[in-house]
């Protein structure tokens, strides 16, 4: 973890980095190797799964924030392509003492060298959602939205970020399932996860973890975690993350229900972390930070990301941004102090040693999939495993939710174990108190956008916005 003293290195990274022509993806290795890639193997030289993240042979705990400045404007912008904004914000990231940011949407046609190298110089990893508002699974009608047009965009995003050593992992979806009525989306979420893993392996990239971010829904969050970790290795997620707003200050390990979380996930055999946390029902001072990095939690959880860095009109912001001016809030100071006063456990923090797949859940009133059969990858998308994704559509592309045809949709199912994940390059190589469920639209659930955007996007925009 770096401090403000590293800003000189950040500045050097910016001045030394060239920028490609607008709209031209740069696919050659780009980042330096000052950061060790994060793995889920426990040892960069082994291929054994682990229930925690590792930086080399040391356990890695995520200490981060969710980052999508401008989301409240109702339009999507790419903060990693915004070199000026990234420069501005890294100074505050180092003040917070974080080691990771999560970004919900990027422009896969843009060049990201400047920001990614500067983040790396500051010791910060990226956790990246691969969906965008126009390219995502539509939770209202998932089958036709799982098509090769969508997957081509996902694969293009992987191409754009796979060769940065500080890309920690990719998210195959965010809150696609957000209540008990749309668990039929489960097979499509799992299929996308499978396809992303296959693409990373087929293209010879290092083994970058692929996982999913689950909604704060008690009825099926645990079931979904079980489902994404069951079956054969080619279809199991590499990690699972949950959005959790149950700790509302003043609270405690038991009052918040975090003790129940630990019971529910004890023995879970892939890394688990909080992809969003930080309730604002009351004034939040982040007392949960000390609990999250205590051995009570680290036996199961590998840290988390506070929602969110910038104020977007929903009162969750740690800072307010006005042009080039950043103003910190009391929440920023409280989080900074909470991180500074909390150390990680020594050793492996009690992480589970299990590598066994979960048992696939049975159908019930909260879960509709009846087995682990998944939709087969569309043939046009499968062809990209050999050729690469090609020209990326960016944020302004025509979209994929309504692009399904007989030629680019899935035909039939792929049973568990019917596919394989191609071996990848070496991990060190270059290659109650919860947030509202909101309006249910389609699938990429990015809460960084304003309520007005929900009306605009309706049932086809790919997001459920809070």
TrEMBL record:
Alphabetized GO MF terms: 1,3-beta-glucanosyltransferase activity
EC top class, as a word: transferase
Positions of transmembrane segments: none
UniProt membrane topology term: Lipid-anchor; GPI-anchor
Chain intervals with Low complexity compositional bias: 410-433
GO cellular component, one term: side of membrane
Chain intervals with Polar residues compositional bias: 343-358, 398-409
Keywords of the record: Glycoprotein, GPI-anchor, Lipoprotein, Membrane, Signal, Transferase
SUPFAM superfamilies according to UniProt: (Trans)glycosidases (SSF51445)
Source organism superkingdom: Eukaryota
A biological-process GO annotation: fungal-type cell wall organization
Cross-referenced Pfam families: Glyco_hydro_72
The protein's Enzyme Commission number: 2.4.1.-
PANTHER family: 1,3-BETA-GLUCANOSYLTRANSFERASE GAS1, 1,3-BETA-GLUCANOSYLTRANSFERASE GAS5
Protein name: 1,3-beta-glucanosyltransferase
Gene this chain is encoded by: gel1_0
